[in-house]
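Input chain follows. Return structure tokens only.
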Amino acid sequence: MQVYSFFPNILSSWLHLPLPANLVGMVLMLALIVCRIIPLSWVRAGARWLLAEMLLFFVPAVVAVVNYAHLLLWTAGAFSR
């Protein structure tokens, strides 16, 4: 797994891709699954867990938006231009 997380970083840097390494890694993982190099069963358990707990990952972002809503409303004019 360490190789998988290190390889997209090197690949993105070596090819001077304007994409972040995590996006390169996701595309690489999709290609490996579609080409049936990595069986879907290897990924299925982790994917199910992530989908089941997805709400937990969004709670801090929602709390931050609620806590700083006044700043977002104050700077809304800058975003609309």
